[in-house]
Amino acid sequence: MYEQLLTGARALQSQTVAMRRDIHQEPELGLDLPRTRATVLDGLSGLDLEINQSQATTGLVAILRGARPGPNVLLRGDMDALPMSEDTGLPYASQTPGRMHACGHDAHTAMLASAAHLLSEHVEHISGNVLFMFQPGEEGYGGAKVMLDEGVLEAGGKPDSVFALHVAPELPSGVVGCRSGPILAAADTVYGRIIGRGGHGSMPHNAADPIPVACEVVQAIQTLVTRRFSVFEPVVATVGRIQAGTTNNVIPESAELDITLRSLSQDTRERLASGVCDLIEQIAVAHGLQGEVKLKRGYPPTINHAAGSELVAAAAKALLGEKGYRLMPEPFMAAEDFSYLLQRYNGAFAFLGVAPPGTEGAAAPCHSNHMLIDEDAMAVGVAMHAAIALTSFDGSV
Q1: Is 288 found in the same domain as 240?
Q2: Which of 255, 270, 297 is the last residue of a domain?
Q3: Do 377 and 288 belong together in one domain?
Q4: Which of 39, 73, 236, 374 has a CA-to-CA distance to 361 between 20 and 30 Å?
Q5: Are residues 227 and 272 in the same domain?
Q6: CATH of the domain at 218
Q7: What's the mean pLDDT in 84-97?
Q8: 226 Rama sector, left if φ>0, alpha if ψ -120 to 50, beta otherwise
Q9: Of all residues in the chain, what percent carry a pLDDT higher than 70?
């Protein structure tokens, strides 16, 4: 059966690649992706699917009813691009300046659409239903949560398990990686402002200089991370922007910091955010200045269920052999809104290696303006979606 899935996915490869390249050329941002949705609907036409379209977004859930009653298995593919310029030189590169599919969502969408075709060919083996979730707004808009709160994911029946497959240039092409527990981090942002008193650069004693205070905050954050958190509960705090002043002989009135926080549990998430905010406010006060902070909550940590990750491993090994699956020793510290689904439903988030030939260990990562994928790996992704679904119907989850 699994050999049939790979053979079928390879037979669909030309349409998978064509859809991916079509979407890649016309990237759309956020929750409103009308052209991408139209491409998906066109790609699903002719299949015996129930289509439930989101009213709050341009997302949709397509349902394939199996030959016999059973569980509902949801497979997710995100569709949105990033607000950045593309420098790959591909013949099908983005035609919209300032937009690029640099995180592989074009491939996710195409693989999921082809998986719908592949599973439709094997509907007689399906004891239950497959829900294909095409989701906009993963890149910072929380599209998964919007669709979840809207109820569109349960319009055709509540999912019993949920799965997502994300491309990873860090992994060898065609290899699937997964792990139980945290696989991606929570992401929060702190916006800090140190408010002092401006003055002449030659007479700092007559001013209240916020710049050295801001620099002290940066150093204190690094100490906070290494001295308040166990190395076995890693956190990341990166000051990505520090900005102050206009010229060399003017002491500015304020200095600004933008800080990203990454953590793998709710406890460390709360302690890290609280600690960084306290540093900004209290170090400023220690120097007679004022600190202002604004905490913006991002996605929670993506935490795989043991049964879900075990099912992914079993499906990958059955499909690809032992060497086709890699148990990830540690999480990635990026974040994902699929985390909201895993808070409510059993399942797992997994990675598909897409390193182009000859680039293993040196491939441009996701969110790079030079990010490329090995399109041959997409056939494995299509078959893997189908294998996860069919393994679920065997009663493993």
Answers
A1: yes
A2: 297
A3: no
A4: 236
A5: yes
A6: 3.30.70.360
A7: 97
A8: alpha
A9: 99
Q: What is the CATH number of the domain that holds 121?
A: 3.40.630.10
Q: Is 360 a catalytic residue?
A: no
Domain boundaries, position 254: 186-297
Considering the candidates 2, 26, 299, 345, report the single residue annotated as catalytic. Answer: 299
Regarding whether 32 and 162 lie in a shared domain, the answer is: yes
State whether 172 and 204 are in the same domain: no
| Global model pTM greater than 0.85 | yes
Average pLDDT, the chain: 97
Q: Is 345 annotated as catalytic?
A: no
At residue 343, the pLDDT reads 97
pLDDT at 397 over 80: no
Query: Per residue in 215-268, pLDDT tens?
Result: 999 999 999 999 999 999 999 999 999 999 999 999 999 999 999 999 999 999
Which residue of the set 216, 253, 360, 375 is catalytic? 375
Q: Is there a single domain that holds both residue 133 and residue 18?
A: yes
Overall average pLDDT of the 190-218 stretch: 97
Residue pLDDT, tens place only, 31-68: 999 999 999 999 999 999 999 999 999 999 999 999 99
Question: Percent of the chain at pLDDT above 90?
Answer: 97
Last residue of a domain, one of 253, 268, 297: 297
Looking at the structure of the chain, the number of domains it has is: 2
Question: Residue 395: pLDDT band by 50, 70, 90 thresholds?
Answer: low
Check whether residue 26 and residue 163 sit in a common domain: yes
